[in-house]
Specification:
Elements: H1 2-39, H2 42-53, E1 61-65, E2 81-86, E3 95-96, E4 109-115, H3 124-134, E5 135-146, H4 163-172, E6 176-182, H5 186-199, H6 203-209, H7 213-221, H8 226-229, E7 239-245
Parallel strand pairs: 1-2, 1-4, 2-3, 4-5
Antiparallel strand pairs: 5-7, 6-7
Helix pairs in contact: 5-7
């Protein structure tokens, strides 16, 4: 009898611990999701979503230029052999290297990711040419770059480029664009400015301002309207997602 009672008590303890662990995991997911929702810009969320949408090109050996900071939620696909090259040695990249002088053989990679990097490079044409050199024929390079965004040194901020300029830069590097898609627009930028104001407010005001975020989300979604695509609002572009290939 005593043994059966002890086993029942042990079983109850195990079930209680399992339930507590499950609840703790759920709480961590909720807390992490809330932190991402409140603390991540529309720009970063859009970059994350766009990277997920093109994740299929990240196969084989992939070079992640400037990826040591691991910003946002996107993570390398499990099947990819991921190599991070970054000038920020303190962040522990796989290889300490500048995009303008990559220490790899020609055609070493099947795909290259260069997200939110080229605005910090003084000569993006040379950087793209170097990416082409280490990309195999038929491989893909995925680029994201801001346009309607505040200046941000990392350590320096050199430029914002239109679609026309990106096409010229890609052509000069002998890369063929498959996609040059705008990321966000007038209303996303406006919502982002108001969101930025809330996040920089004193704590009490900031906590009240969080209540505005769902309305700002709705404002940002106005950029998806087909009617806006043929209006003057279409001239406002938050940034670009670019997928290009090296032709054989």
């Amino acid at each position: 009898m005593r043994r059966r009672a002890a086993r029942r008590r042990a079983a109850r303890r195990l079930r209680r611990r399992a339930r507590e662990a499950r609840l703790a995991g759920e709480a961590a997911r909720v807390t992490g999701g809330l932190a991402y929702y409140l603390g991540t810009s529309y720009r970063r969320k859009r970059v994350d979503a766009d990277l997920e949408s093109v994740a299929s090109v990240f196969a084989g050996r992939v070079l992640d230029v400037g990826g040591a900071r691991r910003r946002g939620r996107f993570r390398p696909p499990a099947h990819a052999r991921w190599v991070v090259a970054d000038v920020a040695v303190a962040l522990g990249p796989d290889v300490a290297a500048d995009v303008a002088a990559l220490p790899f053989r020609d055609g070493a990679f099947d795909a290259i990711k260069v997200t939110e990097v080229l605005e910090h490079v003084p000569d993006p044409a040379s950087a793209l040419a170097e990416c082409r050199r280490v990309l195999r024929a038929g491989g893909h390079v995925v680029i994201s770059a801001p346009f309607l965004e505040r200046l941000h040194g990392d350590p320096s901020d050199y430029g914002r480029y239109t679609e026309t300029m990106w096409r010229r830069l890609l052509a000069a590097a002998r890369l063929e664009p498959l996609t040059i898609a705008p990321q966000g627009g007038y209303f996303t930028h406006l919502a982002g400015l108001l969101r930025f104001l809330v996040l920089r407010a004193p704590a009490g005001v900031r906590h009240l301002g969080y209540g505005l975020f769902p309305a700002l989300d709705l404002m940002a979604r106005l950029d998806r309207s087909r009617r806006l695509a043929s209006s003057d609002f279409a001239a406002f572009v938050g940034g670009y997602l670019i997928v290009a290939t090296r032709k054989p």
